[in-house]
Amino acid sequence: MWLNNNVTEFVLLGLTQDPVRKKIVFVTFLIFYLGTLIGNLLIIATIKTSQTLGSPMYFFLFHLSLSDTCFATSIATRMIVDALLKNATITFNECIMQVFSFHFFGCLEIFILILMAVDRYVAICKPLRYTTIMNHRVCGVLVAVAWVGSCVHSLTQIFLALSIPFCGPNVIDHYFCDLQPLLKLACADTYVTNLLLVSNSGAICTVSFVMLMVSYVIILYSLRNHSAEGRKKALSTCISHIMVVILFFGPCIFIYTRPATTFSKDKMIAVFYTIGTPLFNPLIYTLRNAEVKNAMRMLWSKKLISDDKR
């Protein structure tokens, strides 16, 4: 089907076509993206260099920050550049690659969030067996499975995208390539493709969200048997995770679990999980986590000391 397409490039309308508003979009999202990069790369560097952050929770947080960085980069960089252009275009091949990278790192984030919930469940509900169950080898295998699973999901999205025939028009009313806006441009019936999309992306989002919320309800219920200090620490960690889950999954479920209809507010809702969540994650995990903040202070102190010696 790919070779039969008459469309070689798409026009991205972005968030707005107004020249003044496009400048505002450029400045705003450049700041957001730089904040995302600084926050997530700081977490990555802190976990990688700190000897106190060697637990599985921080191993998973490292991969969450890595996926957040790549996830935001796959969308924000082109969005920022396109805001400076009068007519933003993207080639068919680039569009397909963006669909792959967007779904790959988005799905990876979902799987990492599930692994973080599993880690907290074992740590709080089975503390005596925690080090045995969540050892380094098991954590490594789980993360590897998450990466492979994300790749399988993304390849499925690519298969669906390549099965759509395009013969014009080529204007995408969005700021990045995804299957929903692409389905509107198809010159064939897309009912089956949309059904597959909902059963794939929609099911992953909905089932994962339900699993995560149920797991955290169980965790919070089990905290009644812990000491006041242990309950406070575990509660702080779980609340951070729940905030991230709601921020990410709420918009995703709204977008990917409905029929092939698009609304004018879809683009603004997509901003929450494409730009907002990668920016908020480092803030949530650092501001509510004393261990990460202390490790960051130590990393900063070491840097200042090394700079003074020079």
UniProtKB/TrEMBL annotation:
Cited SUPFAM superfamilies: Family A G protein-coupled receptor-like (SSF81321)
UniProt keyword Amino-acid biosynthesis, yes or no: no
Gene3D superfamilies: Rhodopsin 7-helix transmembrane proteins
Family matches, as Pfam families: 7tm_4
Residue stretches spanning the membrane: 24-45, 57-76, 96-118, 138-160, 201-223, 235-256, 268-287
Keywords: Cell membrane, G-protein coupled receptor, Membrane, Olfaction, Receptor, Sensory transduction, Transducer, Transmembrane, Transmembrane helix
G-protein coupled receptors family 1 profile domain span: 39-285
GO cellular component: plasma membrane
InterPro entries attached to this UniProt entry: GPCR_Rhodpsn, GPCR_Rhodpsn_7TM, Olfact_rcpt, Olfactory_Receptors
Chief location of this protein within or outside the cell: membrane
Subcellular location field: Cell membrane
PANTHER family listed in its UniProt record: OLFACTORY RECEPTOR
Protein family (similarity comment): Belongs to the G-protein coupled receptor 1 family.
Name of the protein in its database record: Olfactory receptor
Organism in which the protein naturally occurs: Sus scrofa
